[in-house]
Every structure is written in structure tokens, then in C-alpha cells.
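Example (one chain per record):
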Amino acid sequence: MSRRSPGWRRLCGFRRSGCGGRAKFWPPWRDRLEAEVSRIAPDAAFFGAARERLPNTSCFAVPGIEAQVLLMCLDVEGVAVSSGSACSSGKVKRSHVLTAMGVAPNLANGAIRVSLGWDSSEDDCALFVKALEKAVRSLKARLPGAPGQAA
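Predicted structure:
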């Protein structure tokens, strides 16, 4: 796209306006999502939460649940999230960034990245929470040592 094209000028204007004014909603939505994740899975680990980070992104893992399995459960419910970073989407391997941060391999293998976009809504957040709750409940029930499971 040429810098003189109308598309380029619209993109720059969109970026200057904070993604159409939606960016102001991202931090509180992300924080509510993380609070709901903690309610659903009190043992969830959030990566980078204690540091300055992107306002629209959360990365977490629920111990004992592999990212790929959780991704499939969420996808069936209509929720699109990812494992690893945006630049490595589509790859099915542990995040090299989490490895460099010293995150244990079994926890890094469960990392999920939730990103809010310019067209995200509170309804999307509610759908994610509902789908995550269903998936975590189902998957944790299948873990060794769970009630009804052989140890």
C-alpha cells in the first residue's frame, strides 16, 4: 500500500484514533477476563501480568491442561484464541519466549494467548469466559487424581 493512497491515510488515522476508540476498553476487559480465568482456574498462571504489557493481550496457562487441547475445546465453542505469540501462530510447539523467561516446560505447553481486537465486544468476552469454564471443568475432570479418576 502506498503512503499516498487513501487506504494508507485511513489506516494511519485509525491508528492515531486508538483503533477507532476501542483501545480504551481493552485494559479493563483484559483485567476482567483475567479475573474470570482466576475464578474458573485458581491455579492459572498469568505470564507478564506483573509487568507493563499490551493492553489487549493476556497470556496464561492452566496447570495440567495442554494448550492444543484447550484450543480445540474453545474452537468448538466458537472462540478463536492462540497458543504462543502472534508471530508464531500456527506452530504447535512451546513458546521460545516463555522458555527464555524460565517458565517450566509443562506450564509453557499450556500457554494460551487471548487478544482483543478493534472489533471485540463485551459479548465476545462473555463467550470466552463461558467456553473456558466449560472446557476447564471438562478437562480437569479427566486429569489423574480428579474425583472419579484413577490415581
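Caption: Confidence is low (pLDDT under 50) at residues 1-5, 8-17.
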